[in-house]
Amino acid sequence: MEQIRIIHTNDLHSHFENWPKIRRFVQKKQQASENETVYTVDLGDFSDRWHPLTEATDGKANVTMMNSLHYDLVTIGNNEGVGNAKSVLNHLYDEATFEVILANLFDKQTLQLPKWAKASKVVTTGQGTKIGFIGLTAAFPLTYSPNGWDIRSWKEILPKLVQELKNKVDVIVLLSHLGIEEDQLIATELPTIDVIIGSHTHHLFVAGKKRNGVQLAAAGKFGNYVGEVLLEVDHHRIKNKQAQTFKVAQMSAHPEDSQEITDYMTLGHQLLQEKKVAWLPHDLTLDLQEGSLILETLEAVKKRGQTKVAILNTGLFLDNLPKGYVDQDELHHILPHPMHLIKVTLKGKDMRRLILEMEKNRLFLRGFPVVGMGFRGKIFGEIVYSGITYDKINHDVLWLGKSIDETKEYCFTTVDHLMFAPFFPTIEIAGTHEFLFPEFIRTVLGDHLSQKFPLSEFGSHY
User: Fold this and answer.
1) Considering the chain, what percentage of its residues have pLDDT values greater than 90?
2) Are 13 and 43 in contact (CB under 8 A)?
3) What's the rounded Cα separation, in Å, for the pair 28 and 212?
4) pLDDT tens digit string along 389-427?
């Protein structure tokens, strides 16, 4: 009887505080016994730009860590796919010692898979069993497309790929960054797949789960668990399959772990601090008076979107920018969100409706905690307009000081989070949108400050 073990991680999101324990545990697990083959895989979102080291190295530090653990195969998550400019993603895996499998992401220009990925990979165990691995990531056309990618639904790709593989291999394993609902649907519709190892929605199957005969496995988020799928194979046929997880908090810590974790953070900060952006002659504060960081960012956002109006929420801003040098570390600290800007066009009547939605929700959102959707702050905060005034007495919306004409079109710039969050449905339902890639909001602010307060004007300080 042959045994195949697949060790899996997912959705680490650059939470390196668990990495030393994970590394030691997996390295022990990778030691195969007789009649056993071990594969190590990751399901995506290993990197996340909230961490300074990931930000400073465009994720290449994460790839170096993955190399140290000798992963065999990985797929990508939306943090790799959407959180990086196309040019960055195209070189993220240049030094990888593992293979990337990804079947549903295509270059918009060539309509081919990127050079760094394969749709599937067939591996052969020591006993001659052939395993076909397929990789898929969550399809977000709104954000992939303007970044130069053609992302496709698994329904367009997977059935044909499974059909092609099933006569060539003995076992089919799907590495899925699609989420729990999609994984369960795939298990129902494509039971030819033997194992689906899932991620994206951060779900956890402590002891695995079976659906329609398909083994499902998932290991939560942030490296809190490591997963393992066990396959018993006799004459290249699966006789038994099961899954389990191991809680990282219960693994032994070593004295040097805390220093390693601190070093990752310290190095990231140092690398970002070396990248000077501007010299501020005065503080930029979180109030809305003269010298306001928020008002300055609204100007930057309008400039990038080439609009006369912008809308932001104060919860995006986590700290002031003090007088003196501004470096990328400070920008990353005050605006850690992997958010892009969007330019939204609405008819006048819909623009009025949107502002009424915002005014209706203003008090509720002022202290409302927000988690996910790219938001890395604590609360939503106050809604702030530049170029729009709301007349509370007459319930009128003024655009650059004039009442909105319901028949005309109006265009403003904001962060994509306002479209993804559920508070302002008019943006998505009634608007047309242009995603502005590849910059994050902090990059847009940095570019604005570098032009308004250039380092060259303060050469004596630099």
Assistant:
1) 93
2) no
3) 33
4) 999 888 899 999 999 999 999 999 999 999 999 999 999
Cα 161 to Cα 168: distance, rounded to the nearest angstrom: 11
* CA–CA distance, 348 with 90 (Å, rounded to integer): 41
How far is 64 from 98, CA to CA, in rounded Å? 11
Q: Where are the alpha helices (DSSP H) in 49-122?
A: 52-57, 60-68, 78-81, 86-92
- Per the CB < 8 A criterion, the answer to whether 286 and 320 are in contact is yes
Segment (H or E) for 175: strand 171-177
- HEC string of 253-310? CCCCHHHHHHHHHHHHHHHHHCCEEEEECCCEECCCCCCEHHHHHHHHHHHHHCCCCE
- Give residue-wise pLDDT tens across range 206-230: 999 999 999 999 999 999 999 999 9
**C-beta atoms surrounding 12 within 10 Å:** 26
State the Cα–Cα distance between residues 22 and 117, nearest whole angstrom.
25
- How far is Cα 265 from Cα 51, in angstroms, rounded to an integer? 7
